[in-house]
Amino acid sequence: MSNDSPSGPRSPRNAPASDRDRPPGEHDVKGLAFHDEEEEPSPPPAGRPRRFTWRKLVVVPAALAVVLVITYVWITNVELDSIAENSLAGDTVQLRWWQHVRLTAISTFWVLIIAIPLGIALTRRGLSKAAPVVTAIANIGQATPAIGLLALLVIWLGIGPSTAITGMVIYAVLPVLSNTVAGLKAIEPTLVEASRGIGMSAMGTLRKVELPLAVPLILAGVRTALVLNVGTATLATFGGGGGLGDLITSGIQTQRMPVLVLGSVLTVVLALLVDWLASLVEVALTPRGLEVGQ
Amino acid sequence: MSFWEYLGNRHQQLLTDAFQHASAVFQCMVIATVLGVLIGVVSYRSGWGSSVAITSTATVLTIPSLAAIGLLIPLVGLGVAPTVITLTLYGLLPIVRNSIVGLRGVDPSLVDAAKGIGMSRITRLRKVELPLAWPPILTGIRVSTQMLMGIAAIAAYASGPGLGNEIFRGIASLGSANAINSVLAGTLGIVILALLFDAAYVLLGRLTIPRGIRV
């Protein structure tokens, strides 16, 4: 890099005349050749590790595609009786898949909208006293079974997708919130002080220093929320929310193994796919300076 | 019927369910701990081995538990078998990961010293490495237990034992007067069990973590 910059001290153009006949990095002092030692190890920008390796990009989707093809071949060849056929009739399967995706996406959206600003607020000076209370609530919340929470909400709010989404949001807010708080708290206080010292406002410090530094932990929280939500969305069926859980429960209730297996396989594929996508986003959004060297 | 009357009327059933819930989680945790630490011990020295162990257990954790139970039913039928297998599988991840992290965190010079005074590989592991790695392993066990409490509730749908049955009974009788009591009893019961287990682990930590490395 430094070779292209015109002001670079060792670029051939402004080097002493005698240096121009020498290879780069070598100097002529009174007829003797001297090497620049510090120039030798090549600087990192050229050899920056690639963010997306082939393995990261290909292995998971390929494996999932194989599983889907095998399942498709099996389900089209297996003998289905009328009950099983009814459970899979028309585009039920697609419908359930998209319901599941929608439940996951909507609940994750709300989780982020609620948890990240709340996490930021809890680390500001005014509200930091409330943080231990929130942590205590979060710990008890983690001990609450998702299915129990969902069942209580169904009794309270009635049946339907919005009840399921409410339950999923409540359940996933806690991990994202605690990750955000932990990420912001882990920042070296001297960095915040330094940025205040050079005249940045509190808002500017948050936006330019604190949030970028907390990005890895926040993203880890987002990934956790996504994976949790794909899982909790299977329980939406108990609250009339649809989703792939419908296939699983109707398979168990009617004792039709093809329906059960198809529902389970699709749920597994969706969960792994979402986790894989989230891992790619995680890699792409982490600030370059915070990447851990391989 | 108020919630307290419900508890009074059904306490026999509720206590049985609670006991079965706790015992299923406890037994699966014992199996998961033994297996998890064993996997950790076998794999922590090779980078390849431990990354395979961590990736495969993390993949299991990504799978929604209802789907895992669903995939097991055709193989092992309904009831206790899918419950035990699912709980053990899900319990493994935090334990495997924390034992690998814990064992790797042991100061190599301590292991060298143990080797120097003539300890065999097994003795080193038993007297030096595992005691030093125990606090993170115990944390893994706590995290696992809390997770299994919730998964065991879902396993009740596949005719598994425990308090999940109360919750599903409530869901099945939505609209009836006892639905809320039943769901509330099951949910609160699980929360209480989880907190009791957690307290027990804190106590276990005080008793088993070597005095020298207590924080």
TrEMBL record, chain A:
Residues covered by the ABC transmembrane type-1 domain: 97-278
Keywords tagged on the record: Membrane, Transmembrane, Transmembrane helix, Transport
Protein source organism: Streptomyces poriferorum
Identification of the protein by name: ABC transporter permease
Membrane-protein topology: Multi-pass membrane protein
Alphabetized InterPro entries for the sequence: ABC_transp_perm/SBD, MetI-like
Residue ranges crossing the lipid bilayer per the database entry: 57-75, 103-122, 149-174, 259-278
Ranges of compositional bias, category Basic and acidic residues: 18-35
Family to which the UniProt record says this protein belongs: Belongs to the binding-protein-dependent transport system permease family.
Compartments (UniProt record): Cell membrane; Membrane
UniProtKB/TrEMBL annotation, chain B:
Residue stretches spanning the membrane: 24-44, 51-73, 79-96, 179-204
Keyword ATP-binding: no
Topology relative to the membrane: Multi-pass membrane protein
Domain of life: Bacteria
InterPro entries: ABC_transp_perm/SBD, MetI-like
Membrane listed as a keyword: yes
Pfam families linked to this entry: BPD_transp_1
Record localization: Cell membrane; Membrane
Domain ABC transmembrane type-1: 18-201
Main location: membrane
Keywords, comma-separated and alphabetical: Membrane, Transmembrane, Transmembrane helix, Transport
Family listed: Belongs to the binding-protein-dependent transport system permease family.
PANTHER family associated with the record: GLYCINE BETAINE/L-PROLINE TRANSPORT SYSTEM PERMEASE PROTEIN PROW, OSMOPROTECTANT IMPORT PERMEASE PROTEIN OSMW
Protein name: ABC transporter permease
Organism from which the protein derives: Streptomyces poriferorum
